[in-house]
Amino acid sequence: MIERPKIYKFKGLKTLICRNDNSFSTSCLVLVKTGTDWERKRINGIAHFLEHLYFKGTKNFPSFRILSENIEKMGGTFNAFTFYEYTGFYIKVLPDYAKDALFILSDIILNPLFPEEEIEKERKVVLEEINMNQDDPKRLIFDLGINLIYGDQPAGWPVLGTKESILNISRKDILNFMKKNYSRKNTLIVVSGKIKNEKEILESIKKYFANYENRKLSKKIKFKKPKNFYQEKIYNKKVEQVYIFIGFPSKGFVDLKDKVWDFSLFSDALGGRASSRLFIKLREELGACYYVFSSFNDFTNRSFLQIRSGLNYQLIKEYIEEIVNELVKIKKEGFNKEELEISKNQFKSSLSFNLEDSYSLGLFYGLQYLFKNKIETPLEIYKKIDSVKEDNLKKIANEIFRFNNTKFVIIAPEGFKASFSKIFEKLD
What we know:
Elements: E1 6-10, E2 13-19, E3 26-32, H1 46-53, H2 64-73, E4 77-82, E5 87-93, H3 98-110, H4 116-135, H5 137-150, H6 163-168, H7 171-181, E6 187-193, H8 198-208, E7 231-236, E8 242-250, H9 253-256, H10 259-271, H11 277-285, E9 289-298, E10 303-311, H12 316-333, H13 337-354, H14 358-372, H15 378-386, H16 390-400, E11 407-412, H17 421-424
Parallel strand pairs: 2-6, 7-11
Antiparallel strand pairs: 1-2, 3-5, 3-6, 4-5, 8-10, 8-11, 9-10
């Protein structure tokens, strides 16, 4: 049974205990409210680079090999992730090893060594990760899309950074970023899944994280709202088809509040599943693509709905026109009751299936509490999902599907030139 999470605080360090007695595993997470949004341009990518370096040796596990072997001796798996507003570290183990996992996590966060030779080796790794992104149009189009929406500020920069910025980041920069952005003030410890001895877990957290400093934090870089006019960009690259990104910016979840559920259902009905409008139109009716999808990406101070696909470049204008015609139709007619009901059931089933996993359970509750300082259970969210009406989705379409709110990026074969503004003008 999944219980409502319990909240504990130890000298300013927040902890969540998320029990699921039916789980076969326990996940221990450290979530830190920092990421690309706190970076300066010269050190773009440092939050992600630092996340890598935390695993390159600690006081008690002085190399990656020793660290990974000790986790894997427990049968555990581990990873970390960086995004614009948060960074996370986790170890997933059998319940008997939860204490040991917490000790290793605490050593990673409190006692990293950052040896110069490991920084240089990992710098090469990150550069290859950037190369991988550049070589994959499906990944690259996302970075190009958010850059067009948000421009030259952290919200528009790649999480990985650029080759130039990664090459210029020094050990001193890394230590400074860590000291200014890692503190018990902005950190949340989450233990989720099967928990055999809750008291022992809490005592372990108090003990292992006792020396975690309560540093003063650096301020997030001030966010500038996207420019309110149509923008398009063509990026020429050696590809066999065109890759498109159509973005429609909106407010962040702080301002949207419960309207985020409307946006989530809207995105699903538009292009989030096999029976969605765009999938049926582009793939099933026209045979225009292998993949097409939409998603709603939300942050505290901004959000955007994106449409992405890979299309035949010789028929690109016809296919873009089909997409725009569908968006115009949705503005006029909205989605019908059946479409909305399918999206509601898809949302609820997806959330339910994810929460069967101890790591996903911890992340679900952890990110809620980290950013909203409150907890909503799946059942409470389901009630909000069920309350969304067809009119809510029609209002979203008319709010965001506007010519001046459209940002269009295309990766096309070398030598390809075109203009698409006349097609998108139909949105007004």
